[in-house]
Amino acid sequence: MSDNASFPRALPWFARPDARAWRCEPAPAEVRVFHSSLPDYKPTPLTELPSAATELGVGRVFVKDESCRLGLPAFKALGASWAVHRALAERAASGAEPGPVTLVTATDGNHGRAVARTARRLGQGAHVFVPQGVHPRAVAAIVAERARVTEVAGPYDEAVRLAAEAAAGPDAILVQDTAWPGYERIPGWIVEGYSTLCAEIDEQLAAEGVVDGPDLVSVPVGVGSLAQAVVTHYRSRPGGSDGRAPALLSVEPEAAACVLESLALGAPVSVTTGATTMAGLNCGTPSSIAWPFLSGGLDAAIAVTDADSARAAARLAALGVSAGPCGAAALAGLRVALTGSGAGERRRALGLGPSSVVVLLSTEGPAANPHSDADH
Questions:
Q1: DSSP string covering 228-255, please?
Q2: In angstroms, rounded to a whole number, what is the distance separating the alpha carbons of residues 101 and 104?
């Protein structure tokens, strides 16, 4: 079967040649200080995969393993913890009546569990809206955090709409990891929270002798909040000793490639999503605050099939890295980009050579995103 067999018109790929020259302001340094103060904080592993480097024709490959972050099986707790900290501090400073509030959110699984865990830790309530297609075990994990869960007979965007309506009361705060005009402050804090992950990568690469940072970072994308954090980190500082900034690649499911479609059209658009095992990436609309960063700072975007993700997860497991379908998407996207017809052109667009250093963001472990393949 050819790479394009499941996508008849062409490989779902978009590249932008001048992204590495785009610049923005950095994330605030106090985010890392805050996370370091949490009792269960420790940096997640950055694991080198020499055989993957050989397979991909690059110098070194590292995977950032987010399968255990602040006691949860995905990276999302970084954003939820910082955003809730900021929101509650602002509420107290505004003179609001003291007492518990309800943190409201919509989720494909990981973010909602992170908000519920944060609420439980702080003695607050949580109400989580879950769209169709989220595995019952993922829903049960949110319920186990003592959150109220409302299951929505519709896609992620509908769950977001209903959560926003439910959070309109005086004792509720919407803690959503996607933004739209009029709702951007808290999603912005969530993005800031993810900056800790990137700061850890810098330190861990330096410890491995990679002082100039990576040449490519591959990041799974849903609404684009993590990708916004990655773009912010790598586009807010000068390049390495040779002046070069890294290439940044976003990876989405073919069933929900809203960022790829938006990049191709030059404006943010919503897409109709389909079923995918990459449940945490099954989002139909880019975050409004992420879009300027994605359109300015991403070098390339690619979409992959569930089969691509499953093969990548199996390969990572064989190499000792426990990744769910969304986490494995980072490897799946790079594999698809660097194989098949046009691979040489895509390799050049990403600036990859035999000595390049690649970082894959494995955003979750298998427990974060149960799916049918994991039931057996």
A1: HHHHHHHTSS---TTSPPPEEEEEEEGG
A2: 9
Strand extents, DSSP E, 221-367: 247-253, 300-304, 357-362
Report the C-alpha gap between 303 and 220 in whole angstroms.
Answer: 10
Place of tokens 């943010």: 268
- Active-site residue (options: 65, 108, 215, 306): 108
- Can you say whether residue 209 is alpha, beta or left, with left for phi > 0 and alpha for psi between -120 and 50 degrees? left
Task: For residue 210, give every residue at least 6 positions away whose Cβ sits within 8 Å of its Cβ, in sequence order, or none.
Answer: 60, 357
Whether 76 is catalytic is yes
CB atoms within 10 A of CB 23: 12
Query: Minimal CA–CA distance to 333: which of 361, 370, 367?
Result: 361
Which one is catalytic: 40, 42, 64, 76? 76
If you compute the radius of gyration of the chain from its CA atoms, what whole number of angstroms results?
Answer: 19
Question: Cα dihedral angle (21, 22, 27, 28), rounded to 10 degrees?
Answer: 80
Neighbours of 352 (CB within 10 A): 22
pLDDT surpasses 60 at 227: yes
The per-residue pLDDT for range 76-121, each reduced to its tens digit, is 999 999 999 999 999 999 988 888 999 999 998 899 999 999 999 9
Integer Cα distance of 188 and 48 in angstroms: 31
Task: Answer yes or no: are the C-beta atoms of 266 and 294 closer than 8 Å.
Answer: no
pLDDT at 169: 86
Single out the residue of 104, 110, 103, 150 nearest to residue 130, CA to CA. 150
